[in-house]
Amino acid sequence: MKRRAPRISAGIALLLVSLVSRAAAIEEADRLWLVGERAFADGLYSASRRALERLVTQYPKDARLPEAVLLLGKARLQTGDSQGALEAFKRAQTMTPAPGRPQEARFWEAETFFRLKRFGEARPAYDDVLRADAAGPLAADALYGRSWSDLELKHAETAVAGFQELVAAFPDHALAPSATLQAARTLAELKKTSEAVALLADFQKKYPKSPLVADAQFWSGWIKATSGDAKTGVAELRAFLAAYPNHAQAPTARGLITQTLARHGDRDEALEAYKTLMEQSPPTAEGLYDAVKIATNLGRPRDQEAAWKRLSTEFPDSPSTRKMAREFLQTGSEAFKQKNWKSAATYATFATKSDENAVRSEAWLLIGESELKQKRFAPAAKAFEAVGTVADTEASVRFRALAGLGLAREEQQEWKGALTAYEAVANKSPDATLRDWARERAAAVKTRVAKPAAPATKPSPSTPAKKEGKS
User: Fold this and answer.
1) Is residue 371 within 8 Å of residue 386, measured between CB atoms?
2) What is the mean pLDDT of the segment spanning 84-95?
3) Contact, 173 vs 140, CB < 8 A?
4) 86 phi and psi, to 5 degrees?
5) Taking a C-beta distance cutoff of 8 angstroms, is the pair 95, 101 a contact?
6) End-to-end alpha-carbon separation of the chain, Å?
């Protein structure tokens, strides 16, 4: 009997070890699930992910596996691993029983596609959720996601319909205010102004506690101010600024008020807008551009010059500066057509401050031709010579400038300079008409130099290469 005692002790020991191991395993799985679930709830997504990944890997037969996989997908999404999240959500959809709420795994797959900017895949995924349960707990969120996907896919009309469907079906949902605002903004982009304004008209009454009340007031004013109802739009924007002076859209509202008054206000309002823009701190290229436009529209050349000087000096590389320079050149060209030579030269002088070679060279050419028309030959010659200093000048502009320089020098009786310019045009200009004209002028100058007593043919103070409609 004594010999058998050790065998019984060994068997009992093995049984105890087995029982302890199983208990430890169950305890560890419980611990990992508890950590993963609670960490996620507390926003500690990295810790949640680590615990859930261990649970899923080490305990594949655990009854909580489907829920763990779904929650793991959410934790991965929160930590920026969208591809890993996508894999988890796809796996969760194959598991039995289906984890979470009805269609939850498919919904989060749609959300992940959206996060990855794969809108063409996100939309049908949202659609699957809605088809399966159009009144379910995820329906409003799916409608919202599908509508945003439509926006990203440039299906604006469909997006508006989706946002409005959400508001109609789930008026008390937390996403209803945002859906209303997005529908209004999209309608405004579609030029359906009256519908957009109508959606925002009772926004504060319908959603008094929404954090988007201020945004709705801003967009209502913005839509009206930019679509013809300037007076009402400005009034709403001013009310918005009074109520929310530190709102993120406040600077935009101030700028829009100024721009609107500059374009649609009376003279006093426009002058006040000009002053506001010039005193803006810090200044902006867009604001100074508007200041130039205001001064131009009001016929105040000194203010126009002051605003343009600041714009071209403080923001030489800005798109607004380039745009203004092109507008000056166009205005100068129009003035030239109307034989307003002085005005043409003034506007072209502004355009010479452009950082675009093409604009600058054409501006100098326009100045030269305008001065030539006014028989101001010295400044005309100087402007024509300036064309040659601009890099990458188009051949047509360069040779027209040389032709103009020849005329200016001829009028100044600087025969050598005139002949040099004419011969350069006659030898190299791609314009056959201009070449023939230059040869005639060169021949006339040579004759004048050879026979000082003989009167030279009076040149016309313009070049024949000047086409109608070109400066």
Assistant:
1) no
2) 96
3) yes
4) -60, -40
5) no
6) 124
CA distance 151 to 62: 42
Residue 470: the pLDDT is 40
10-14, 47-51, 371-375, 439-443: least confidently modelled range? 10-14
- Give the pLDDT confidence of 121-152 residue by residue, as tens digits: 999 999 999 999 898 999 999 999 999 999 99
Closest CA to 70 of 51, 86, 54: 86
**Alpha helix (H) residue ranges in 190-300:** 193-201, 203-206, 213-225, 230-243, 250-264, 267-278, 285-298
Contact status, residue 396 vs residue 365, Cβ threshold 8 Å: no
Instruction: Supply the DSSP string of 388-435, one letter for each residue.
Output: TTSTT--HHHHHHHHHHHHHHHHHTT-HHHHHHHHHHHHHH-S-HHHH
Q: What is the mean pLDDT of residues 182-198?
A: 95
Q: Is 318 left (phi over 0), alpha (psi -120 to 50) or beta?
A: beta
25: pLDDT strictly greater than 90: no
Return all residues near 426 (Cβ < 8 A) that are at least 6 apart: 435, 438, 439, 442
**183 close to 164: Cβ distance less than 8 angstroms:** yes
Give the side-chain half-sphere CA count within 13 A for 149.
Answer: 24
pTM of the full predicted structure?
0.61
- Measured in whole angstroms, how far is the alpha carbon of residue 349 from the centre of its chain? 31
Give the Cβ contact number of residue 7 at 10 Å: 9
